[in-house]
Amino acid sequence: MEPDGYGWEVERRKLVWLLEMEKAIRTPAVNQAFLDVPRHAFVPPDIQDRAYVNSALPIGAGQTISQPLMVAVMTELLDPSPDMTVLEIGTGSGYQAAILSRLVKTVISVERLPELNQRAEGIFRRLGYDNIRCVVGDGTRGWPAEAPYDGIIVTAGAPAVPESLKGQLVEGGRLVIPVGDQGYQQLLRLRRQGDTYPEEKHGGCIFVRLIGEEGWSLE
Ligand code: SAH
Asked: In this structure, how many other beta carbons lie within 10 angstroms of the beta carbon of residue 54?
């Protein structure tokens, strides 16, 4: 990883400006997190020059680092604050977890592929992001050991909202998740109100599949 020199910083500022113009970044705290986290550190070396383009990029194992605009929208929908504990399903590159780690107390991030889990852990260690706990498992079942969570964010497309995740929210807790078929999903935000989970739709998106017991089956 190269030092975070002048070039990267200018590129990053331009991207943040674009995300503000698009109304994806809406709050000063999220703005600052995007300025602080070096996205190029999460992108494979051979395509690092595209790290600050507003698009998803391949990270190996058939997976992607999400589009910055989508990371911004989902982060704002969680309504992060410094005392929150957040569960992320789908660590992938680690970039979304890194952004959240600047905004909340603790991030627990679940990834089903051990090689991506290890890759992300290495990046967090190098950056000194020590409030992210990376675990390997089927995130469609959530992560009961540390539940309940103030917020849950799913960064892979689900066929339906996994029941296990709803049950791991605190009262008033938010769940942000793309739900739909394999080619196109709606971004949903649910909020726990007792035993009900009223939901809002926040537009179309395209994510890789959420694979697991309460997601798509692997075939
Ligand atoms: N948040 C990531 C985007 C990751 S892409 C980022 O910022 O880069 C989605 C990730 O979800 C992939 O790495 C995929 O392996 C993972 N995934 C798919 N199904 C999963 C499951 N049931 N539990 C945990 N991770 C899962």
From this structure: 15
